[in-house]
Write a structure and sequence with these properties.
The complex is a heterodimer of chains A (370) and B (148).
Chain A lengths: L6 E6 L11 E7 L2 E8 L7 H7 L5 H6 L6 H15 L6 H29 L3 H22 L8 E2 L2 E2 L5 H27 L1 H5 L9 H6 L5 H4 L30 H25 L14 E10 L2 E10 L4 E7 L2 H12 L7 H7 L4 H4 L10
Antiparallel strand pairs in A: 1-2, 2-3, 4-5, 6-7, 7-8
Helix pairs in contact in A: 3-4, 4-5, 4-10, 4-12, 5-6, 6-10
Chain B lengths: L9 H4 L2 E7 L5 H12 L8 E3 L8 E5 L2 E2 L2 H11 L5 E5 L1 H4 L10 E3 L9 E3 L6 H18 L4
Classes of the chains: A alpha+beta (370), B alpha/beta (148).
Chain lengths: 370, 148
Amino acid sequence: MSNTQNISTFPFGPQDVLLPEPLKFQFYVDGDKIIKVDPTIGYVHRGLERAAELNDYRRNLYLCERICGICNVIHGQTYAGLIEKMTDTEIPERAQYLRSIWGELARLQSHLLWLGLFAEAVGNPQLFLDVWRDREIVLQLNEATNGHRIHLGTTLIGGAVKDIDESLAQKYFAELDKLRTRMDTWAVTMRKDPEFLAKTVDIGLLPKKDAVHSGAVGPVIRASGIPDDMRCNGYQAYGELDFEPITYDGCDVQSRVLVRLDETYQSIELIKRALKQMPTGPIAVKSEGFPEGEIVYRTEQPRGEVFYYGKGNGTIHLERLKIRTPTMPNIPPLLTMLTGDKKQNIPAIVHSIDPCISCTERITEIKEVA
Amino acid sequence: MYPLTSQKTAQENNGISVVHFDCGGCNGCDIEILATLTRIEDLKKLGITRVGDPSKANALVATGPVNHRNKEVLKSIYDRMQEPKLVFAVGTCACTGGLFHNCGNTLGGIDKVIPVDVYIPGCAVRPEQIIHAVNLAIKKLTQEGKPE
């Protein structure tokens, strides 16, 4: 930064029409080139981990589902998985399949939500409306499953609350086929439309090396060519579903769009495969005893790896619950992407990591240095 | 970001112009607000428009429990809004603090910071509830008298 006179600053957020959630960025720009970015978080910090220590450990399931409304199903499943490990509970195989099905349904909902918001961020409102119209199919499936559009609430410590019977399975098959046909009509715009590509190709570059060094997770690292996906570990029923992570080598915003677009198709296939393979049997067992010991449990959220650490002492309260959600490790890569890029690309790049601020706000600054 | 975003003011629209702020909920209500705006594409006919600038709005849709940091933002948005002001508390945690009542950093419902006109409980709220609440609010607005 030799000629500092030319550098101007402008704030972005916390309340802005482009931001559904409060997040603040201070941009330092030279002409239209971004020199430096300072993010500020803390606007939606709630102190949830402390509340989890005060609550009964069984109530925390519902608290963890409310960390984030978009990926609530997988948060609930991760917490339940953590407690099941701490209490040595082995859940039935059918429950594992049910969890995978609903986890993929949540991923489908989240990716469709993001594809729509991203289309709007790059200036294509019609595409936004089309994508969100089709997302309603998934929400209606949620409602048919357990009576609620957003918070599915099917997870139980020890299994699942509800089963998928034959008629509901048929509905899943029919509606997912319908969704797939409808998706084909707008997916071609995201893959081939020159106007869309002009705003995404070679923008927000995150080279493979930087992606590893800055600790990116989820679709962001997979769009830089690294097959990093927690589902490869085969938790729940993923080990039996022939899961292969989707990667692209473009390292740009378009690759992140394509990773998520292909993952929506993959989720539809995984749900159908799981419904066909699902064994019969009980859906839940009784979890006995209180959580004890230290356990780390990781699953793959729509946005990347989510990390739960729990420490129990054999009482009804957990001693510590630590949660690291995927947007947090994706903020340093975002700063790498923004630095050196153009001012007009800010909305596309910020959206490309799929920021979920209500997830992220697990920590806040402790003191200000005078 | 929103297809119904307009630069017109409340008076020009002859209805209500809504500004949206998330105080720290789980996003469930926020995405339902968005779903409301997309599912009913002719919401504009009801006189409901979404604006980005608080100074052009006369209704605030707030979700989530208030915390120590965003209460200042919420207050400043409320102060910049046009008269008469309408405030919707969307979701149980915006009404009372809800599930986050014992979290260390939350103050409770948004009525701890600004006056609320319509409470919409639900976790998460349904689009139909939001539309019903907006209808109630429009009635309230016409009773109190709209500035002409």
